[in-house]
Amino acid sequence: MSHLKFAGCVVLALLPSWLKVPLYRMLFGYRIGRGVRIGLSPLIGMGRCRIGDHARIGSFNLFYQVGDLEIGDHAQIGFLNFFRGGRKVRIGAYASILRQNVFNSIIQRDFVDPVDPVLDLGAGATVTSGHWLDFSAGIGIGDHTIVGGRNSSFWTHNRQRGRPIAVGCHCYLGSEIRVAPGAEVPKFCIVALGSVLAGQFWPPRSLIGGNPASVARELQERDLVLIIHKTRDDIPDDLAQMHLPEDLLEIARQPDGIMYSCPV
User: Fold this and answer.
1) Residue 6 predicted with pLDDT over 90
2) Among 9, 82, 116, 123, which one is most buried in terms of CB atoms within 10 A?
3) How far is CA 224 from CA 18, 84, 171, in A?
4) Which domain range does residue 235 map to?
5) DSSP code string of 89-100
6) Is residue 92 part of a domain?
7) Does residue 1 register a pLDDT over 70?
8) Residue 109, pLDDT score
């Protein structure tokens, strides 16, 4: 990227949202929906960009050389997040990314195996604070899954080999976990803080923990607040309940189990 174009992207980011949004549409052909607000967050070296209605991007985020950026309706991105590289970054509707997270894909890769550098954050999913997600070989995080606490890291490659990471829907991942290349977490699981995940040997509805991680026990009803309640109050019920089987849906609809927002 030329220095002139880089400087132009930075200057454009300084403009108020009501002015920069139509300029992004006109100058770059970005598809930006209604009611979108973008703070001081440069979009540098982008390929395609689509931002859904009423999405919010706070200040001091940086999007750098992302091939295809897709941000869903009502998604929210806080501040001081860094998105670098990758074929595609997709942030689902009503997803939330809070602050000081790094989403990085190596731009000049020399992997010996083919990889697909895609970050796919599902609808209603949440990434809280201070996490590092290397998606050089791809990371998929399911709908309504929470990467909670602080300081977790996801790695999809070693020196020259990459394997994708997959996390199912309605999971809760605690603080300071380490996720190795090729790890898979099935739906409706809780991962205890400090766990080290490698492999794909856990059944759904498990409490997973340890180093290396193993199944501690099946989830009990008292655990379900972390995986079946809404991650945000404004998520429509039909979206929040879309993946819930009948037994979990019944619990979520109980008078004391209404799908309130889940603390992260």
Assistant:
1) no
2) 123
3) 42, 34, 10
4) 3-147+220-252
5) EEE-TT-EEEES
6) yes
7) no
8) 79
CA atoms of 236 and 107, how far apart (whole Å):
37
Average pLDDT rounded to a whole number, residues 28-46 = 93
pLDDT tier, 53 (very low <50, low <70, confident <90, very high otherwise): very high
- Count of CB atoms situated within 10 Å of the CB of 192: 16
Give the type of residue at 48. Answer: R
Kindly report whether the peptide bond that precedes residue 212 is cis, defined as omega within 30 degrees of 0.
Answer: yes
pLDDT class of 52 with cuts at 50, 70, 90: very high
Task: Answer whether residue 28 is part of any domain.
Answer: yes
Residue 13 included in any domain: yes
What per-residue confidence (pLDDT) applies to 111? 87
In a domain, 203, yes or no: no
The span from the CA of 102 to the CA of 256, in Å, is 37
CA distances from 144 to 2, 68, 118, 161, 209 (A): 39, 23, 19, 30, 20
Going across the sheet that includes 196-197, the strands are: 43-44, 62-64, 82-84, 102-104, 132-134, 153-154, 178-179, 196-197
CA distances from 139 to 153, 163, 230 (A): 12, 9, 22
Token code pair at residue 219: 């989830």
Quickly count: other Cβ atoms within 10 Å of residue 179's Cβ. 26
* Total number of domains in the chain: 1
Mean pLDDT over 188-196 rounds to 96
Residue with more model confidence, 137 or 225? 137
**In sequence order, which residues have a C-beta less than 8 Å from that of residue 221 and are 6 or more positions away?**
251
CATH of the domain at 246: 2.160.10
| pLDDT score for 32 | 97
Structure-token pair, residue 130: 């201070």
